[in-house]
């Protein structure tokens, strides 16, 4: 049995389980501004605190939805999973998303974290898996999450 096939069996048995919750991460104005520069999205709701206070429904600047989404990589890196699932792993790459919903804006100064639930796994060939994780990004002190996304990762084994 290949290492990918072994990992597949381990992951298949864990479908539906919560893999863990990340550390908290503060969303600063500096991070928002840097993302605005990289993506060339300088809408006032993100980068102009005075105008956002006067004209936006949130009263402060908010993170770009795609900034929050892109932080799944950082957030998920602090979730510790059983290492035997990754024995022989050469690389993992983003494959895509089945569904993404931006449910609530992330206000500047907020802290976010994500919870990962393994929702599916597919053996693509003897050395490659696709994992599907439902990622829920919560905002500290808020009842609704910032986003929920079904994230597909391609895992390539030696």
Structure write-up:
This protein is of the alpha+beta class and 158 residues long. The chain has a single domain, classed as Thiol Ester Dehydrase, Chain A. The protein contains six helices and six strands; from the N terminus they run αββαααααββββ. It has helices at 3-13, 29-39, 44-47, 49-55, 65-70, 72-76, and strands at residues 18-21, 25-26, 89-102, 111-125, 128-139, 147-157. Strands 1, 2, 3, 4, 5 and 6 form a six-stranded antiparallel beta sheet that branches. β4 and β5 form a beta hairpin. The chain is elongated, with a radius of gyration of 18 Å.
Strand-pairing-aware structural class: alpha+beta
Helix proportion: 25-40%
- End-to-end C-alpha gap: 12 Å
Distinct helical segment count: 6
Radius of gyration: 18 Å
Main β-sheet description: 6 strands, antiparallel
Total domain units: 1
């Amino acid at each position: 049995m290949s290492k990918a096939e072994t990992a597949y069996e381990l992951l298949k048995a864990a479908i539906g389980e919560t893999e863990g919750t990340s550390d908290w991460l503060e969303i600063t104005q500096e991070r928002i501004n840097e993302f605005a520069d990289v993506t060339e999205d300088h809408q006032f709701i993100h980068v102009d605190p005075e105008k956002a206070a006067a004209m936006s429904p949130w009263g402060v600047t908010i993170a770009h939805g795609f900034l929050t989404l892109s932080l799944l990589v950082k957030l998920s890196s602090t979730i510790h999973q059983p290492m035997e699932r990754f024995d022989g792993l050469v690389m993992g790459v983003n494959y895509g998303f089945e569904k993404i919903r931006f449910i609530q804006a992330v206000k500047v100064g907020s802290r976010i974290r994500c919870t990962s639930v393994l929702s599916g796994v597919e053996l693509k060939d003897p050395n490659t898996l696709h994992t599907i994780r439902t990622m829920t990004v919560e905002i500290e002190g808020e009842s609704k999450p910032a986003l929920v996304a079904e994230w597909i990762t391609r895992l390539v084994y030696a």
